[in-house]
## 1
Amino acid sequence: MKIVVFIKQVPDNTKLRFADGKPVTDGAPMMMNPFDEYALETALKLKEQAGSDSTVTVVSMGASNTKDIVKKAIAAGADDAFLLSDATLNEGDSTANAHALAAAVKTLISDFGILVFGQMALDDAEGQTGPKVAEILGLPCLTGGKNVQLNGQTLRFFRETDRGCEEHEMELPGVICMAKCDYELRSSNIQGVMKANKTEIPIKATADLGVSPALVGAAGSATKVTKTWQRPPKSGGRTVNGSDAKAAVSQLLEYLKEAKVL
Amino acid sequence: MSEFQGIWVIAELTPDGSVAEGSQELLTPARRLGDKLNQPVTAVILSGNRDTSSAEALLGRLGANQILLVKDDRLAEVQGETYTAALSELLSAKKPNIVLLGASPAVSDFAPRAAIRANASFIANAVDLDLNADGQVEATRAIYAESLLSTVVPLNKPQMVSIKKKAFPKPVEDAGHTASVEIVSLNLANIRPRTRLVNVAQTESKGAKKLEEADIIVSGGRGLKEAANFKVVEELADALGAAVGASRAVVDAGWRPHSEQVGQTGKTVSPKVYFALGISGAIQHLVGMNTSQIVIAINRDENAPIFKIADFGIVGDALEIVPELTRTIKEQNLVLHV
Ligand SMILES: Cc1cc2nc3c(=O)[nH]c(=O)nc-3n(C[C@H](O)[C@H](O)[C@H](O)COP(=O)(O)OP(=O)(O)OC[C@H]3O[C@@H](n4cnc5c(N)ncnc54)[C@H](O)[C@@H]3O)c2cc1C
Ligand SMILES: Nc1ncnc2c1ncn2[C@@H]1O[C@H](COP(=O)(O)O)[C@@H](O)[C@H]1O
């Protein structure tokens, strides 16, 4: 079975700086979107469950330095990859990006069984790309996954909700979106890293995808961001020494009364 | 005049036949936008064949002018393809101007799809909503792991927006207000759903309250040393009527279910009061809770990053201080004003 995983490169938010209400992306350290690490591990697990002659193909859209996360995915066990990179693909919202990614699946990949997405990208935080790709390709879709299990042509999909852990069954081919999973991305071994170093990653432009430039990038977007600004940072308040628990608790309660919380 | 008219609220029903809290809250922005645009507010109920009269009455008291009622056993559970078909058919037939939904995991199974099918715009997880000078929706939402806020405008109509829980208070009920009910039937017979809910396993979680709806959250981290010690967190939560939260470290250790995890790969919460007990305050935790109104931290390490954002803190051993706090609250019958 052919499994396809979609990974996005995002700024490392533990190191990201902001100025004038915008991220300083120049030279910012980048990483694989955290939920996409779960998506990748899910794809690798599905490959094992699907048995021999199964493969994992990575699709990523972004600037040319996106290669780094694609190589990381190959080092972890993915088989091949496509990088979609073209100025007309930039600044798309989830509608435009879904058109680009769906077109890439249609033109570059045949006979896939499962498309695996992350639940949400850390930067634009839309959480919509997977379901929209499913819609464009006419496939079933489940979101918010934490675990999967493949039995032949049926996929079992688990997710955590307010009413408990839901278990769904999906007929394939289909689309799944993974949130935090019961497992973490495996680390890569030396063979994986060597393979990643040797693998040429084909770069595809909009023209290669058979999609109209009017449907992708800013031109194909159904929403527009008109303003961004930084949240006022929260600052620390008063602390009490807690070596005497009783005294510390009554001091805390005093503070809470002053703040009219009590 | 635009052919797109009216403000819709997609009302999610609870198992007991009432309306989900998050859906009730949607009536506040819906009525505000309806008043500004002089357009009626319609609550849409997608339901299996069951009694919906109490939900209809409640939506009326909350200010809906009209109810669009679709009853079909195929709609008893949210199923992506069926709900996509139902919603997009309604959107195309009735052409609402603005459609509000509660942000929930089930909504992401169908709302983005319905937006594509109906050629609408969909903005997810908004925390505020307004109109610009042209009467177009302006949604506020967080990006970059909650670090930035953004204003987003839809370019197509219907203008669909999902709204996070607790972004708006629910309106005061008006006992005398009722909504007229229009029953609509949709052609769902030809849809062959390719996903099926087969089981729901109850996660054992002590905090009876749902995290995202709670006004007070008591969260614990690895500083509590072992799973059994989490009872001090549960007892404080009990005494305060709070929900229990957790850091990822303790979820990964298997002490707590993932449904309790707060942070970048868990839930984003903004209660009135948030207790962080034995939690260091890693950025991935902070992004999930730093819009809480008041943060109270107890940590042994005075340099723990959590103190940089805590309004009140105690530097000390949580295993000693938390039981003392719980005891005092119970003894003095203290209640937090939230
Ligand atoms: C991609 C990614 C996503 C992540 N997502 C999340 C997320 O969603 N949510 C999340 O929480 N984390 C997340 N993390 C993990 C995060 O980086 C931290 O590792 C985690 O939050 C630490 O949990 P903790 O504070 O419980 O444990 P620690 O960092 O180990 O902190 C324990 C704290 O307890 C204190 N302590 C020890 N003993 C006592 C005592 N007796 N009394 C009082 N205090 C005591 C210590 O001083 C310390 O500050 C993520 C990480 C990554 C890389
Ligand atoms: N540029 C991209 N390249 C590859 N995958 C993407 C891209 N953008 C979004 N995705 C996928 O879609 C998921 C959800 O993204 P979003 O809807 O933007 O929050 C991500 O976790 C990825 O799996």
## 2
Amino acid sequence: MSPSLTTTLPRGTILKDPILLASGCCGYGEEYLPIVHPSTYGGVITKAVSVTPRLGNEAPRLRETPAGLLNCIGLQNPGVDVLLDEVLPRINQLDYSYIVNVVGHTVEEFAELVSRVQRHCDEQGQGGMIGFELDLSCPNVDSGTTFATDLDVLRAVTAACRAETEQLIISKMTPNVTDMLPYAEASRESGADSITISNTLNGISIDIRTRKSNLGRPSAGLSGAAILPAVLYHIWRVHKAMKDYPIVGCGGIWDADSAIQHILAGATAIQLGTGLFMNPKLPIEVQQGLERYLTEQDEPDLDSIRGTYEYC
Amino acid sequence: MHFERCTVTANEEYGPGHWVISLRSGQDLSGIQAGEFLNLQCDPEDSWSLLRPLSILGVDLAANTMLVYYKHLGRMSRALSSVQAGEALNVLFPLGGRFPVDMSHRRIALIGGGVGLAPLLFLAKQLEDSGMEIDAYFGGASKPDLVLRMLEPYNCNMILSTDDGSHGYRGNCVDCYFDSGRSHDAIYTCGPNPMMNALKARLDGSVPCWASLEEYMACGVGACLGCATHIDNADKRANETVCKKGPVFDLSKVVFHH
């Protein structure tokens, strides 16, 4: 009997397998349809949506680094009106599961976004929508801090979003902290069902001739295979202390081996991002690699291997 | 759109640092149009580096190959030049949109430099039986940059320029175009941003000009928005993806920042 990749997240969320495409790397899931249809794996997390449209940053927005990629896209998106009026009705016809990523400048904006998307689901039907991901790596204009690194605003924004929906909420953590555990605990206490570990690492790239940034911003977010060990560390650290709190691993997955490492460190589901740019068929290769690994290890499912990393 | 491991059938240096690689596909290539590009793995052993966006120079339907012109610019293009015939590379293709062509036009101009010649030469090839007169204003820093051997198979009026005057008109291809005094129904351009910006500054809007842009890219399919460029539409400014909405844009609407 072939092993099962079926993945369960809180609030009755069942995925075909643990594979999700990371927000910001897959648009709304449509762009990769000709290569691999998202209905053949767990699902996609849509591009972050804000209350009003955002133009994003000036070019250059990308800079490749050794085994990595710096980006400063700047959350370019058409705003929630377009998402609800045009995008969701369109992708609801495409028969795949998706999580809506939301981003705000204030606690109120986050809550408004969750409320509006929830109301849309209530009135227009659920379609493929299975939950929310909160993008907390942006500054809160009220406190001047980043949602993801200020425990008080992290609790406030999570609780405010929780009050607006009964659906799955995943909070996307930043890796730019010494210890992620307090932030994970705060997320759980304030109502997030799960956390994504993690967003990008802070980084810069300098043009040594001009002594200015190689990007359109002074700093940017680092992703790609280069960050795999750092992300695995955070997953392992949180899972060890919060074994029953589901983690969505995100960062550095470029093949089946790196995906398996996420699960061994403690991830329940995984997100593919930058790896898609090198290999758009990565979801299928990871899916096949997970099945092969479970078979070789004589394990029935992913629950049997999750968090089984032994470090001594 | 396909993601395929294509076999390299040839990889040849046409001039110092100027290479053309041939990639054999198992797909039907007859629909590929001038202006479209592909994302290419440059090192068959490297799974951690981004695929490189490169314009398609042409398609050989008999051999079912796509031709790509590239130049030694950095680590990845050097890696690509060491790939041997028989090796295989991952290719995502075709990407982006084509050059718009009005078949009622009688005379068109191609203005380009560097690897920007690739989509323009493909366009010249696709239009060689159209009856259009094609003036190609191609420029380079010096004679070796013109890669004359690569230009031989094309049936168009080559008006060449070099910055140092070592071949053809002394000066850049934009000055060469305006000094020629010839009129055209449409202009197609591809090359360094300063070159295209200079062209934009001197056009008065009476002739349509289509520019194929280059930008740092990651996904190539419009998913990551990493390649967005500033497009100034009449009603509003937008950041449009070069990979999906482009790479060909109306030059008059492009705002160059770098």
